[in-house]
Amino acid sequence: MTTYIIRRLLITIPLLIAISIITFALMQFAPGSPAVLDVDPNVPPEAREAQIEAMGLNEPLPVQYARWISGVVTGDFGNSYITKRPVSDMLLERLPNTLILMTAATILAIVIAIPIGIISAVRQYTKTDYAITLVSFAGVAVPNFWIGLMLIMFLSVQFGWFPVGGVQTLNADFDIMDRLHHLFLPALVLATADTAQLTRYTRTSMLEVKNQDYIRTARAKGFKESKVILKHGLRNALLPLITLIAIMLPTLIGGSVVVESVFSWPGLGDLFMTSVNQRDYPVIMIITMLTAVLVVIGNLIADILYAIVDPRIEYRED
Amino acid sequence: MDQLQHRKPEPMTPNNNHDNLGKHRSMLGIFVVKFFQNKLAVFGLVMLLLIIGSAVFAPLLAPHDPNYQTLVARLHEPSAEYPLGADQLGRDLLSRLLYAGQMSLLVGFAAMASATFIGATMGAIAGYFGGIIDSIIMRIVDILFSFPNIFLMITLVALFRPSPFWLIVSFAVLGWMSTARLIRGEMLSLKKREFVLAARTLGISKWRIIFNHIMPNAIGPLIVAATLAVGQFIIAESTLSFLGIGISPPTATWGNMLTAAQNLTIFQTAWWYPLFPGLMIFLTVLSFNFVGDGLRDALDPRVVEK
Q1: Can you tell me the ipTM of this complex?
Q2: How many Cβ pairs closer than 8 A exist between chain A and B?
Q3: pTM of this prediction?
């Protein structure tokens, strides 16, 4: 087990290096030299040369990469070409908002999907089951930005039940209810696809457990049906769902770009779109890399958790 | 102890379906019957034929020129003249929706074809040759899978060249990995079968064995994956177009129509405008998913006919 975890950690390192090289290469090959963008067109060529020299943009690529990555590892992400501020400061300002949104979406997805998935499995082949399956099909197919627009149009603008965007009422003091009021719709939209997926997984997992011998034994012992399902069934059905952390994370991070844009939510996704439109390379590079690193870590955690939780899995040394 | 964990195999019920229908049917016949017994799959197929047909025949069906601006018709509500209303520039929404379908479907199908081609080739090579080639290809797959797709797509499309062609190239480059994994798996099990050994004994070249002998046996899962992929690429295209970095106006796509509809005045007065383009994306993707799932069930021998 320990050797499995260590091996799993060791595989992660080359993966992270590869991710950083790809991100760096992508920005190098993108057209439009940052130095050109950075300098006023009226500045004489000598000054521009000096600028390029100062930014280290005429050094060989491996040297530039080495300088960039050693900075990244020590937390120095460089400065934004547009705002001139350290990228790390810009990220830290935005990160909490994105984390709040992602956490809320995860909670919503779990709270909605698991009970519905169980009901669907317990009532297999009934009208309820078909309706739930159909809705989860719809949840996977619906574009999240459109769901966001529809909710804003009907619930926020026409009925006035929710604010149209932002994290809180402008210029108001911090108020937890106000924050939650602003958080609900974006979190719901971000959770849509994952809720649908999770419902389907819960249903499948529960169906598999439902026919196991120990469930029949529990019934034979005369336990109440609710106890059989929730205590004996659910515990075992939840096991495979742990891996869903890994499956959900990329959709959550990717979805945040769209949701933050629709709801003017000042998080990382919103910062990413602004930076892309301004060609602010240092910021784009860091965010792209950061999201990939998060996904890798998510996968790592899911694999390790799964190994700890399920003793049936063997880890051979091949 | 371990023995106890094994589930008893489900009892095999003798399959009397052939007798019920009075004749022995071919594999294809069984597949067709199973597919058409699936109501959702049939619904998806009919919807798709309608949507694709309406896009192809847009010039005949559209009541107006999709780019013609009638100032007095700005945000006109649905009426006999404008069946689904008009947009903020007074262009007929129905006509724009029909033409937008052309672009969205074109990108979806072209991206699917290129991604499937790359994925199937990579997967076949990895699975058949194994060893170091397999390791390299599968590590590339792992690395590309680590990036949440949308970030690389946005970076590639926005920083390099925003055009339909480049959009398709980016989708293909970033969307071939799951097909590669699928085909590699198929390849690993198929290459050990007798017919491959027989082909090898006859001295047939490796590439012919891979593409002419093994691949036809993996065509089922490949078609299922490709069908589902079209829907995913249509979502991706409309997302990028909505964010303003995919296909830009005046060429209409369902995504960029929604960008224009994201406006407080429109939300207050013209509910139909943001409603219909999104509905088209939703129905198209849903139909592709229904058909894909229907194909999967129809190809799966464990799913029996009713």
Answers
A1: 0.85
A2: 126
A3: 0.86
